[in-house]
């Protein structure tokens, strides 16, 4: 550290600097390199950035595929850095503490190539292949985009898809990836077998571990997005009830104790005549949230009148509250992408532009870009190495 400035003051100053500046400062001296590379400093910088410096990682789409073009934008969607990932056709799984999990779109592949990437430092790690899963000694093939792929096998037809989630396990101080590959026999109407292969990857140990091989299926996926909160991955699913009907629920997987949890949606969503075009999960006010859009008579495309529900806890009892309802028809909103850094609704309009809608002030902020937005997630800069 500089002899003219107190070490404590220098440390506090360095902790407030962006990653790009800190990366340059590592070249100033061996001492500065040692301080900035110290795991304690990296953890402190990440924690401070999480609470004071949230931004957005925006992925742009060209043609039929999501290319490797990304940008970092501040809370007002003003771009401050362009970043490129060296491999094309990837999609964002999730972002957590400065690291981003990417999934490679490889159709008709029995593997799911994944990467953990730090956009701030440009460093990434290719995740080793997960353990292969043979069902009746016939290896199935799946789509990495969680859509149904019908495969004709020697012993019948199967529908397969995958669920992927990324998060942080506070108990072991480890970043982890959840991979669930679901296989359903569809050849016979009389008897259908269903299986889910469940594996967890540890970034610290750099290996996959199968936790429940060849088990009866967990509820089927109804959307391809997962969110991370409090050491668990959450996603929307469809569960077949005992009476044969299908019901939307939320499934959660805790990275700490490796258990599943199932939550019902608000009762009003089960007992309604409204046609819900979309039910999506998100994180709002540090809680699980639901974004629900409805058909309206004068709105045949895009999002119409939308309601947002948030799950709250009261003396260890969870309950849903309707936080707000908003009419998005005037915003030409086409697709919900999530909730913003300041609890705005993050949308893509019919021109493919990223839009933030503040339901409290009814203000709209639009990303200034001519490119079609494929996805966007809240991101915090960090020095954490993948």
What does this structure look like?
This protein has helices spanning 7-15, 19-25, 30-37, 39-52, 267-270; strands at residues 54-62, 65-73, 79-84, 90-96, 99-104, 114-118, 123-126, 134-135, 138-139, 149-153, 156-169, 174-185, 194-202, 207-216, 220-229, 232-240, 246-254, 259-264, 276-284, 287-294, 305-314, 317-327, 333-339, 345-349, 354-358, 363-366, 372-380. It has a domain at 87-264: Lipocalin, CATH 2.40.128. It is mostly beta strands and 386 residues long. The model is unreliable at 136-155 (pLDDT under 50). Strands 10-11-12-13-14 form a 5-stranded antiparallel beta sheet, with no helix packed on it. A 4-stranded antiparallel beta sheet has the order 3-2-1-27. It has a 4-stranded antiparallel beta sheet with strand order 4-5-6-7, with no helix packed on it.
Largest sheet, in brief, is: 5 strands, antiparallel
Spatial gap, N to C terminus: 27 Å
CATH topology description of the domain at 87-264 = Lipocalin
Mean pLDDT comes to 80
Number of strands: 27
Instruction: For the largest sheet, list the strands in their spatial order.
Output: 10-11-12-13-14
Domain F-box associated beta-propeller type: 75-364
Pfam families: F-box (PF00646), FBA_1 (PF07734)
InterPro entries: F-box-assoc_dom_typ1, F-box-assoc_interact_dom, F-box-like_dom_sf, F-box_dom, SCF_F-box_component
Domain F-box: 4-41
């Amino acid at each position: 550290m500089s002899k003219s400035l107190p070490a404590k003051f220098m440390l506090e100053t360095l902790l407030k600097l962006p990653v790009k500046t800190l990366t340059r400062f590592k070249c100033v001296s061996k001492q500065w390199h040692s301080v900035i590379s110290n795991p304690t400093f990296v953890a402190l910088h990440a924690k401070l950035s999480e609470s004071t410096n949230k931004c957005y990682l925006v992925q742009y789409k060209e043609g039929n595929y999501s290319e490797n073009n990304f940008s970092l934008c501040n809370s007002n969607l003003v771009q401050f850095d362009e970043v490129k990932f060296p491999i094309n056709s990837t999609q964002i799984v999730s972002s957590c503490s400065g690291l981003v999990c990417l999934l490679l779109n490889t159709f008709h592949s029995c593997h799911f190539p994944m990467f953990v990437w730090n956009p701030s430092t440009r460093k990434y790690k290719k995740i080793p292949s997960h353990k292969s899963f043979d069902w009746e000694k016939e290896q199935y093939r799946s789509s990495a985009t969680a859509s149904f792929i019908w495969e004709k096998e020697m012993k019948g037809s199967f529908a397969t898809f995958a669920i992927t989630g990324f998060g942080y396990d506070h108990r072991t101080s480890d970043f982890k990836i959840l991979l669930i590959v679901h296989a359903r026999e569809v050849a016979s109407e009389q008897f259908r077998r269903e299986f889910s292969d469940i594996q967890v990857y540890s970034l610290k140990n750099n290996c996959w571990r199968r936790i429940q091989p060849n088990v009866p299926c967990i509820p089927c996926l109804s959307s391809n997005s997962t969110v991370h909160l409090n050491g668990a991955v959450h996603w929307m699913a469809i569960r077949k009830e005992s009476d044969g009907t299908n019901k939307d629920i939320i499934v959660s997987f805790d990275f700490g104790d490796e258990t599943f949890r199932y939550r019902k949606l608000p009762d009003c969503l089960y007992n309604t005549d409204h046609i819900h075009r979309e039910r999506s999960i998100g994180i709002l006010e540090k809680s699980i949230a639901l974004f629900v859009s409805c058909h309206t008579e004068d709105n045949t495309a895009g999002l119409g009148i939308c309601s947002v529900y948030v799950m709250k806890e009261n003396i260890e009892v969870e309950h849903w509250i309707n936080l707000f309802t908003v009419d998005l028809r005037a915003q030409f909103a086409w697709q919900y992408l999530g909730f913003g850094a300041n609890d705005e609704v993050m949308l893509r309009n019919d021109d493919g532009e990223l839009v933030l809608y503040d339901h409290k002030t009814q203000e709209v902020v639009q990303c200034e870009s001519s490119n079609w937005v494929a996805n966007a997630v809240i991101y915090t800069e960090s020095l954490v190495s993948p």
